[in-house]
Automatic annotation (TrEMBL), chains A, B:
Record keywords: Signal
SUPFAM superfamilies noted in UniProt: Metallo-dependent phosphatases (SSF56300)
Organism: Triticum aestivum (Wheat)
Record protein name field: Calcineurin-like phosphoesterase domain-containing protein
Domain of life, per lineage: Eukaryota
Boundaries of every Calcineurin-like phosphoesterase domain copy: 40-313
Molecular-function annotations in GO: hydrolase activity
Signal peptide coordinates: 1-20
Pfam families associated with the record: Metallophos
InterPro entries (alphabetical): Calcineurin-like_PHP (IPR004843), Metallo-depent_PP-like (IPR029052), PAP14/16/28/29 (IPR011230)
Upper lineage: Eukaryota, Viridiplantae, Streptophyta, Embryophyta, Tracheophyta
Length: 380, 380
């Protein structure tokens, strides 16, 4: 991003922080807080898949279209927060030495509007680059686009390759203008990287968190699609520490559905019937490869209201499972498989009286559908 | 390697160079030259597969066993040159941040004895690391072995991963003690890296090359298993420039058999019959995924006497194809699939009167077998 873009984003963020809190500058990110009226609205951008086939016409065109979807959703909904729910890029396909350039484009719509965001990794974000076999034919290999800082003699490291998760996340944080709430997570959970918790402070009781958002790396790309035992243990200790009596409602975000999604999925028909709510049921759930206890841990906590995932572009439903909801986002990017119209799941949390989570899908064309209340339990 | 090891290797190389040429120092590698008597003997070390399952007992034990095979062959044959014929490491399995440590171990038997060598890449050398799914169970992830220079705070780049070809080759050249004749090859042939030509000078006519050795990268690992169109064009231009009238005999080395090997392979039986010569025929040829003309180019040149490949551990034959020979090496390393006894193909070239190429297999236990004459055509 150019310096003035960062300045502009910082100015927007500063104005928002000043309005909200009085005097928190943009360099020390303001804590997340419910907006006046006790609402906190989150937009989920899932499966953007930036960077596909940049050596063709249709690759760059679909990236432009993805920019447009996010702009339409952000301008219509004006969310307080954005969650980028994995597969921001298609790393097996990006013709650059470092996919963080495409990653940066994916987060720029939130940044440009001064909206704080966080990201989790999908299975395409740090995939190794897959060399098209036809590049070894007379067609040859197109030139790699190296960073401008590379000197005349090509950097040996400048080649088509996947970009490791830590490198993507570090680049995001370097260019965040103080707006990213992402993290590289505890070292002991690597290769899973996007493991962290965000607290959203109450509007009514300024010192108290009124919502916890857990982000987990569900793997894929450079390693198996799984939430590990180590992540389960880490989640349990975080939850015990931050929310010992379960008074604070909790939401969970990761990319690849767990096997529990298979159990609750609507039967093989394009219709989504009660108790599920949604508009797309066009394919089978593609779950993680193993289950090491995260669903058991989550379903035992009444404070956990819902899990949100992406990954399946042809599914956009929410279904109840035990005492919580399992939700798909909506395919947001024009990259990736499927021709279903693009949109974004909105999650609107209210801390007023009866804590509640409402959700709907905002389409690129401005319409909304699939409204559902994910929780009406009283927590405070 | 430690400084004294490099010094020792350099001293051996210097002594050899002084004996051979008089005054060429070890820092400017002596040109390769036929030994007194007009012989040039090459040992092929194929499929060493260092670094497998280092977190178990059997992984390190098989690497020790591979050290022993190479030592036995080198001490029995005393070759003038070693060709490392790909799959030096099993990069999808090495528990280090940079596989060049294992690569270095693979080439150290030649270096320690002051024998010059060169390397080509196989399909396992720069594979992405494959995370064992059981590491996400309660067993957990074993600690990654980072280079000692990494400070107390772990380097974000220090993780299990594949090491790119250029990085492996650059590390080899940095620690070669002037003995490596490998190269990263022309930039325009990347992602194929091990593309270069070595000239071996005549003993009788000191200025004239009496043998050309072509090394080609047959792909695999991070990109498809193929010799590209661009490599074919490069080979043709090199051959035209270095050997315009085809007077100099030529040998060719790469890792993965071309589809022509499938055509000449002995029928499905463990026996190898004339005109093929060998002792192992225990599996199907696993060829490259496409053929973009390299076999056509090679078979049209009467100066090309033989091609040597590795890759298939259960094959060790040579078979005639058009006017040249297609040969497998012998599985040298204790890493990789198969329980056939380990050994190395020896290629003994004579420039005397009738140029000739004799070959046999030297086993770890000291025996030899499968003697074959690959050429008796007169070139000079």
């Amino acid at each position: 991003m150019r310096w003035w873009q960062c300045r502009l984003a910082a100015a927007v963020a500063l104005a928002a922080a000043v309005l909200a809190l009085g005097a928190v500058g943009p360099r020390s990110p303001a804590p997340l807080r419910f907006a006046p009226g006790g609402r906190f609205k989150v937009a989920l951008f899932a499966d953007l898949h930036y960077g596909e086939n940049a050596w063709t016409d249709w690759g760059p065109a679909q990236d432009d279209a993805s920019d447009h979807v996010m702009a339409a959703v952000l301008d219509a909904e004006k969310p307080d927060f954005v969650v980028y729910l994995g597969d921001l890029v298609t790393a097996n396909n990006v013709p650059v030495a470092n996919a963080s350039l495409y990653w940066d484009r994916a987060i720029s719509p939130a940044r440009r509007r001064g909206v704080p965001w966080s990201t989790v990794f999908g299975n395409h974000d740090d995939m190794p680059f897959e060399w098209p076999p036809e590049w070894f034919s007379p067609a040859g290999v197109p030139p790699v686009h190296c960073p401008p800082a590379v000197p005349a003699m090509p950097d040996p490291g400048c080649s088509f390759r996947g970009t490791p998760r830590v490198e993507l996340m570090t680049a995001e944080l370097d260019r965040a203008c103080g707006l990213s709430r992402s993290s590289v997570g505890p070292r002991e959970l690597w290769p899973g990287v996007s493991n962290y918790v965000l607290q959203v402070l109450s509007r009514e009781r300024p010192e108290d968190p009124a919502l916890l958002m857990y982000f987990l790396d569900s793997g894929g790309g450079s390693y198996p699609e799984v939430v590990s035992c180590a992540q389960v243990t880490w989640f349990q200790s975080q939850a015990r520490f931050l929310n010992p009596d379960g008074r604070i409602p909790e939401l969970v975000f990761w990319h690849i559905p767990s096997t529990a999604y298979v159990k609750v999925a609507p039967k093989a028909t394009s219709e989504v019937r009660k108790p599920c709510v949604g508009s797309l049921n066009e394919e089978d759930v593609a779950p993680q490869v193993a289950e090491w206890g995260i669903m058991c841990s989550l379903s035992l906590r009444p404070s956990v209201k819902a899990i949100f995932v992406g990954h399946n572009h042809g599914l956009d439903w929410c279904c109840p499972y035990e005492k919580l909801w399992l939700c798909f986002a909506r395919h947001t990017g024009h990259g990736g498989y499927g021709d279903w119209p693009r949109g974004a799941r909105i999650v609107d949390i209210s801390e007023k009286k009866h804590f509640s989570v409402n959700s709907w899908i905002r389409m690129e064309n401005g319409s909304t559908h699939s409204h559902v209340t994910l929780s009406s339990a009283r927590f405070n």
